């Protein structure tokens, strides 16, 4: 019986995927301002998530465009639970999400970074 050898590309893809699952040094180094933040779920987070994320990450959306169901951002608690993932994809200089031409402006991404670094209050 001959065993198939995994391709180099497949092995590389697996290593990248596993690395993505580890702790994020960038998120761990994100700093909430010493004086805290004026940003809250009510005055910033909910609006940002509703405008830029919920068309794929709301639990009630049938066509999630490939968004895994475990990444559902319906309330402040679920957003705080996934803060590192959201930060790594959408906050500050991280621009892989949301995909498409209507990306949030840099100023909003910077606010998202601050809000998440402060614990998504």
Structural write-up:
By secondary structure, the chain is mainly α. It has a domain at 41-59 and 70-121. It has 7 helices and no strands. The longest helix is centred in the N-terminal third of the chain and has 14 residues, at 8-21. The protein is globular and about 40 Å long.
Please render the helix and strand layout as text.
Elements (H helix, E strand, L loop, with lengths): L7 H14 L3 H5 L11 H12 L1 H4 L18 H6 L1 H8 L15 H12 L4
Helix pairs in contact: 3-7, 6-7
Outline:
With 121 residues, the protein is an all-alpha fold.
List its salient traits:
121 residues, mainly alpha, globular
Helix content: 40-55%
Ends apart, CA distance between termini: 58 Å
Q: How would you sum up the major sheet? A: none
Assess the beta-strand content as a share of residues: under 5%
Low-confidence stretches: 1-23
Apparent shape: globular
| Total helical segments | 7
Q: Got a strand count?
A: 0
Question: How large is the radius of gyration?
Answer: 17 Å
Task: Supply the helix-strand structural class.
Answer: mainly alpha
SSE string, helices as H and strands as E = HHHHHHH
What value does the average pLDDT take? 82
